[in-house]
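Input (structure):
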């Protein structure tokens, strides 16, 4: 695919963040053609984007540089997609209603079917919450436009709330996804991720230190590779990966019920969650009190369902992938686990390397043996796992 992106800039102070986005794209070898609306040029000079992208910047529908006077058509052909960041309320309204009165809006309307259009709204919180903006956003989504964010926080006007444009690194992740090979196109993938929480009383739980980062990275990578991903997640503080459907649960038993409800029709099940092996047998409706002269407390635990094993042994089982986090004898334990659970692919890692961190070291284990991968970010490793999985599905 042509490694070229069309980046639209509309009038908003967040335009300065798009300078960094262009830099990230160029660093990754992506050519960026910047199109600016007239309002955008009041915030940043076209020369800034020209210097950063190393390419001409386009502002005018009637630009004579385009030999056939068809800049509104030619610029988007062969590009991986169009990203408009920042997208103002006015620009969203235009695209939602099919207006085409300047180069950028005309370019959006003239894009070919299937050509991705992403918008990253940036506006004052009140503008974002007004019914017309909400209607326009809903209509854009209905039309297949991907709306990225907005984020929440302090705004240029001094107010706080929804409406901040996503950060350049977050936007870049979405741009990178446009260029990911669609290795899992047409596949439905069900996943679990994060820890589970087993309540003891109304304020206390048994849980573990899983952050959910590996599972979320894998959900993102699978979605970027063209899969339809449903993520059943234990409690985490992570944002939902773009394009992924997320179902929130707390306990292992809730996770099991959600998986049972979603598994029909899934081609692949990937169990990344660090599921608690046990739950507290007698949940106390009242907060447990510390008892004087009574050192120690005994909680009776009962076994949780093994979700992965249940799915792997079910009739019409999807292709199952498991994770094993071990503190010692990682590979031996992982190989035994793969056999015990009866699954074709298992990802082994050392719990100390994996939990809560942004990077990891993993070994893939399948019928052909061990495939160790070099240490990397969870996002990079997720892409490797996707490639390995896709190759196994192809061979299946
Ligand atoms: O049995 P163990 O917890 O070591 O196996 C880890 C793998 O099994 C992971 O893929 C995990 O998500 C899955 N698992 C599960 N349900 C459980 C326990 C583990 O799906 N109750």
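Output (sequence):
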């Amino acid at each position: 695919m042509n490694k070229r992106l069309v980046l639209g800039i509309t009038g908003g102070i967040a335009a300065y963040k798009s300078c960094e986005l262009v830099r990230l794209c160029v660093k990754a070898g992506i050519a960026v053609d910047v199109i600016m609306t007239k309002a955008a040029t009041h915030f940043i000079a076209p020369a800034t984007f020209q210097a950063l992208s190393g390419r001409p910047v386009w502002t005018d529908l009637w630009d004579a540089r385009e030999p056939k006077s068809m800049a509104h058509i030619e610029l988007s052909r062969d590009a991986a997609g169009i990203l408009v960041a920042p997208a103002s309320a006015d620009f969203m309204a235009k695209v939602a209603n099919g207006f085409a009165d300047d180069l950028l809006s005309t370019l959006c309307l003239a894009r070919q079917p299937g050509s991705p259009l992403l918008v990253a709204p940036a506006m004052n919180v009140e503008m974002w919450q007004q019914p017309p903006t909400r209607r326009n956003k809903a209509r854009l989504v209905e039309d297949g436009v991907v709306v990225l964010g907005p984020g929440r926080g302090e705004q240029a006007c001094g107010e706080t709330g929804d409406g901040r444009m996503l950060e350049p690194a977050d936007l870049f992740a979405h741009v990178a996804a446009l260029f990911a090979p669609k290795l899992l196109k047409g596949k439905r993938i069900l996943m679990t991720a994060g820890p589970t929480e087993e309540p003891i009383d109304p304020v206390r739980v048994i849980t573990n230190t899983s952050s959910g980062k590996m599972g979320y990275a894998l959900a993102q990578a699978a979605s970027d590779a063209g899969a339809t991903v449903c993520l059943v997640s234990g409690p985490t503080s992570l944002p939902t990966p773009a394009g992924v459907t997320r179902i929130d649960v707390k306990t292992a038993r809730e996770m099991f019920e959600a998986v049972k409800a979603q598994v029909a029709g899934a081609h692949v099940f990937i169990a990344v969650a660090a599921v608690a092996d046990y739950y507290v047998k007698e949940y106390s409706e009242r907060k447990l009190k510390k008892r004087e002269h009574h050192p120690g407390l005994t909680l009776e635990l009962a076994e949780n369902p093994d979700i992965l094993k249940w799915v792997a042994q079910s009739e019409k089982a999807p292709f199952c992938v498991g994770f094993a986090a071990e503190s010692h004898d990682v590979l031996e334990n992982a190989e035994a686990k793969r056999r015990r659970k009866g699954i074709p692919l298992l990802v082994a890692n050392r719990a100390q390397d994996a939990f809560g961190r942004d990077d990891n070291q993993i070994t893939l284990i399948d019928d052909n043996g061990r495939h160790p991968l070099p240490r990397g970010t969870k996002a990079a490793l997720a892409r490797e796992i996707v490639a390995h999985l896709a190759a196994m599905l192809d061979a299946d």
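Notes: The pocket of cytidine-5'-monophosphate is lined by residues 192, 252, 271-273, 275, 304, 306-308, 322-324, 337 (CB under 6 Å). Residues 209 and 355 are 6 Å apart (CA to CA).
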